[in-house]
From TrEMBL:
It comes from the Bacteria. The keyword Kinase applies. The keyword tRNA-binding does not apply. This is Serine/threonine protein kinase. One of its GO terms (biological process) is creatine biosynthetic process. It comes from Streptomyces caatingaensis. Belongs to the amidinotransferase family. The lineage of its organism: Bacteria, Bacillati, Actinomycetota, Actinomycetes, Kitasatosporales. GO terms for molecular function: glycine amidinotransferase activity; protein serine/threonine kinase activity.
Length: 371
């Protein structure tokens, strides 16, 4: 038993794969708005996703776990909570939780440290409990493991901009993108907030997206907590940034897959260029719309799981993405996963790398601008 992972591509030996059981359309809260009247959940309503959708998602998650196990990778699974229960702290009450499918949102492994993220949705404040039994097992089994939890946030009204969603939704796309670049989003800077899925790991360099779930204070906390790393706060030209792993995906040393519809900062591109990294625009998604009750975008096509520098798992219907990766020299493993999207994401979202072979390396020895 070993906890250890420095990047997104070293050979994967141990992984957690999430479960769909009990996933909710969240009750209203300041950080997130759900409005799907055509699918039975108009704004202000909440409840469990339909049983037939849950069964279909679990079938694909179980099948994915078997694919990984057949390749000699150890697979663990979380223990879902009763996510339909209301939860509270002394300062607020939330009428439902969310789920335990997107493990990547809540946890990240950096070296031998397993870190629990703050989370910024009240519905996800207690989600770490679904994963605690596994974490406790790892801590008992691996004497070298560091177990850390970021400061648990208060998530009072001071952490959110009142009326944000109505105001932001009325803006044209160009003004929305300008606010994204400026970090003028739903989260204030009252306390550090970040989701682990906003972190892309490349050895000594960690690229952390400022988003609807991660603020500048959260990036600053990570920078202080991980002084041996270079922690870069980054933004992209998108109207609704939420998690970096369907926008900016390191595939192996020297190669990043990028969503061209969400332009990267020029300084970030220069940093990669001076270090001889190639940035490849991802192939266009095969699907035009996300499935019902999904908050994800169609760019889940590039939300993939790298098994080693030559092998990658891709959603099975995304033929253009698979063909592109084949041309880039990868063995592509097609994995049916579209039914999982309403439960919180794609193949990368659904997993946590517990152990990848490899050591800490500096893939960006040359400085450029603020990076």
């Amino acid at each position: 038993m070993k906890v250890g992972s420095w990047n997104e591509w070293d050979p994967l030996r141990h992984v957690v794969v999430g479960r769909a059981d009990g996933t909710m359309v969240q009750a209203p809260e300041p950080a997130v708005v759900r409005d799907w009247p055509e699918h039975g959940f108009p704004r202000g309503t909440y409840g469990p996703l339909p049983e037939e959708m849950t069964a279909a998602a679990n079938e694909q998650l179980d099948s994915f776990a078997r694919v990984l196990e057949a390749r000699g990778i150890r697979v663990d699974r979380p223990r879902p909570l009763d996510f339909g229960r209301p939860v509270a702290t002394p300062e607020w009450t939330q009428r439902s939780m969310f789920g335990a499918m997107p493990v990547r949102d809540v946890l990240v492994v950096i070296g031998n440290e397993l870190l629990e993220a703050t989370m910024s949705f009240r519905s996800r404040w207690f989600e770490y409990l679904a994963h605690r039994p596994l974490i406790e097992d790892y801590f008992r089994a691996d004497p070298d493991m560091r177990w850390e939890a970021a400061p648990k946030p208060r998530l009072t009204g001071a952490s959110y901009r009142p009326g944000f969603w109505e105001e932001f939704g009325a803006l044209p796309a160009g003004e929305q993108i300008a606010r994204v670049r400026a970090g003028d989003l739903v989260l204030t800077e009252a306390e550090p907030l970040f989701d682990a899925a906003d972190i892309a790991r490349c050895g000594k360099d960690l690229f952390v997206q400022r988003s609807l779930a991660t603020n500048a204070a959260g990036i600053r906390w990570l920078r202080h907590h991980l002084p041996e790393h270079r922690v870069h706060g980054v933004t992209f030209g998108t109207t609704h940034p939420l998690h970096i792993d369907a926008t900016w995906v390191p595939l192996r040393p020297g190669l990043v897959l990028h969503c061209a519809e969400r332009p990267a900062e020029e300084e970030l591109l220069r940093y990669l260029a001076v270090n001889d990294w190639q940035v490849v625009p991802a192939a266009a998604p095969g699907r035009r719309e996300p499935p019902p009750l999904s908050a994800c975008s169609r760019w889940l096509s590039m939300n993939l799981l790298v098994l080693d520098p030559r092998t990658v798992c891709v959603e099975a219907s995304e033929t253009a993405q698979m063909e592109q990766l084949d041309r880039l020299g990868f063995e592509v493993v097609p994995v049916p996963f579209w039914d999982v999207a309403p439960f919180g994401g794609g193949l990368h979202c659904a997993t946590l790398d517990v152990h990848r072979e490899g050591v800490l390396e500096d893939y960006f020895p040359r400085r450029s601008g603020r990076f």
